[in-house]
Design goal:
The chain is built from 6 helices and 10 strands. The protein is of the alpha/beta class and 197 residues long. Bound molecules: S-adenosylmethionine.
């Protein structure tokens, strides 16, 4: 059975508009925490020049694999098992990285590993795009995000909406230069960093 995320269906077109520009010079993109695989299938179809490498933790890999197999697209290789906490990551020859709705799900320690792994993987001029909710100057961008953060932390105290400044500091420590912050529907953002030369 294939799982369906309604949020993915709603946000895939607005995200696509950003990725078209951000990944224009990339050939192979690694997606971290691909979930149901809806984004992978849609972006690979809409951006046929990209090779879209999806990935997931062991627990969610079978469902992701089923969707990628069903799509049967030439630019969608089989997903790889990737837990950001297990370094080094089992991928090479990646131009850029995409991840949606993951940094507020994983622990802060895992967020640190996320950036460590991205830093080890990406070469000059590579791009990192991260979609999701963020706080700025320790403030939520909406009441609904504040309520969502409460819900997340009650469910798992290690999770929670991240502060843009703290995430950006991790990116900077890996040589990633902050390039853009796009306002997205439903109080989300798409953050873009570029690896300096
Ligand atoms: C809310 S889902 C988002 C899935 C999909 N990207 C989307 O936008 O619908 C969060 C995802 O983060 C993944 N994740 C959590 N911890 C992770 C880790 N340590 N390494 C890699 N992925 C992780 C989960 O497996 C899950 O698929």
């Amino acid at each position: 059975m294939l799982f369906l995320s309604e949020a993915c269906e709603r946000n895939k077109d607005p995200i696509l508009q950003i990725l078209r520009g951000a990944f224009a010079a990339s050939r192979t993109v690694l997606e971290i925490g691909s979930g149901t695989g809806q984004h992978a299938v849609y972006f690979a179809h809409q951006l046929p020049k990209l090779n879209w490498q999806s990935s997931e933790t062991a627990q969610h890999l079978p469902a992701l694999r089923a969707r990628i197999e069903q799509a049967g697209a030439v630019n969608l290789p089989p997903p790889v098992e990737l837990d950001v906490r297990r370094q080094p990551w089992p991928v090479t020859r990646i131009d850029s990285v995409f991840s949606a709705n993951t940094l507020h799900i994983m622990s802060w320690q895992a967020v640190e590993e996320f950036f460590r792994g991205v830093g080890a993987l990406l070469g000059a001029d590579a791009v990192l795009c991260v979609y999701g909710p963020f706080r700025y100057a320790a403030r939520y961008t909406s009441d609904s995000n504040e309520a969502f953060d409460r819900y997340l932390q009650e469910r798992d105290a290690a999770s929670g909406i991240r502060d843009f400044e703290a995430v950006n500091a991790l990116a900077a420590s890996e040589g990633l230069r902050f390039e853009a912050d796009h306002d997205m529907p439903a109080n989300n953002r798409t953050l873009v960093w570029r690896r300096g030369t």
